[in-house]
Amino acid sequence: MQVAAIPSLIKQILLEKDRIFIPGFGTLLRSYVPAKMDHKTNFFHPPSYIFELDRSAQYDDPYLCEVYAKCEAIKRDEAIHRVNEFGEKLKKDLIQRGKAEIEDVIIALREGSDINLFPDPSISFEPYPQVDLSTLWESDESSTGIWWEFSAFISMMLLILAGVYYLVNASKIGPNYPYQSNYPPLIGASNDVKQTEDSILSLNEPKEQQELMLQQSLVDTIDQISSIIIVGAYAEYQNVEQMKSRLIRKGWNVFQDSTSTNLVRIGMVPEEHEDIDQVLGIVRKEIDPEAWVLRKK
User: What single string gives the DSSP state of each residue in the chain?
Assistant: First the structure.
């Protein structure tokens, strides 16, 4: 290794250690500065190295000379001579010209008694650019505003669709409050009748026979009877037919009328010789536990 190659050795040592003593010139100190955010200017500063020259150190560190001697395979005295010669040249350039340069490492500039060091990009983090975060924040705020507007629009559309759905289906869903009349409150008006094995007339029976059974068992006017056991009131036609078929399958007479709330009330009519309370117990057990008796006044 020649004298001209000493800068490469200095650079290699500085990348591994935070200081190196150059005889005749001084001690180069390397300090690490972490990345930081300047909130006043909105700039992000990348990590970097700061180099300082300490010329007041009064010691003789032979590390550079020993490494140089080992790499060159020369005697230690010869290595010390070459390194001292290199350091004295740097000192002379700095005093006479105001500038000293260690190739690919630093450039030292003297201004009066002050010496400023400028590291080479290959030994610092300078290639990383400073970033103006204000532009990023403006972009992010714009994106956030768009998303908020889009979310508000979707929420309004959902509310409108919910209102339309309610208006369309409000007529199909009866109010769940007692019917104001001379009769007791309706029971089971909002209940759906579960389809059971006996809730639908058997498909094996002829259609004419089914209609005949309905005609024979259906009582359409309350004037003909004194007491009726009400099993429910329904808004859906399917529920009405299912309950009527269920009562018919039991062999009971069916009562049907309409209320002022557009509900169809279904009940069964006991025979005159039957005990109303006993029949009510059977209906509550087999049909609906909330069945009740409507008595003609």
Answer: --GGGHHHHHHHHHHHSSEEEETTTEEEEEEEE--EEETTTTEEEPPEEEEEEE--------HHHHHHHHHHT--HHHHHHHHHHHHHHHHHHHHHTSEEEETTTEEEEEETTEEEEEE-GGGSSTTSPPEEHHHHHHHHHHHHHHHHHHHHHHHHHHHHHHHHHHHHHHTTS--SS---SSSPPPSSTTPPPPP-TTSS--TTS-HHHHHHHHHHHEE--GGG-SEEEEEEEESSHHHHHHHHHHHHHTTPEEEEEE-TTSPEEEEEE--TTS-HHHHHHHHHHHT-TT-EEEE--
